[in-house]
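Input record (one chain):
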Amino acid sequence: MKTTTTVGQIKTPKTVNEFRQNLKRYFYGCGKNALYVKPENGVARAIPIASISSLNDIYRLTGSGFGGDGSSPCIIPLINFDMDEVADYMDANELYFNAWGFFGDEYKVYNKEKSSKVQRKVKNPQWFSLDNQILREFYVKVLGEFAGYSVLEQEVA
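The corresponding structure, as predicted from the sequence alone:
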């Protein structure tokens, strides 16, 4: 059974239900109905996906962001991420302030929908903040407008 997909094969969500399905499929969770979230200075916990309609809800539920303590909570995408590859990409493309384009259509993502054991295939699971500049492109492509970022603002940056 194939447990990976590519960013280009992921349907960018247009509805809250599609957004929630992508949270279930492409991010670490607790079972099929909860997402692991770690506040910046706190202990990780499972948040019911049914209570998340956008990444802004994660800020609200953790008491973080502009309306809370100013921090950014973290989630774990199901990817094998290597910062050295990002640095090489940025150097090759003369990028200095972002890595837009790194998560191209061929970038591999594990799909938890295929097997709950797929989380074990991520070699080095890493927490990434919701405002991580490198992961923003991934969030936009996988979570769409529900990520809180627009493609236009990234292409201009």
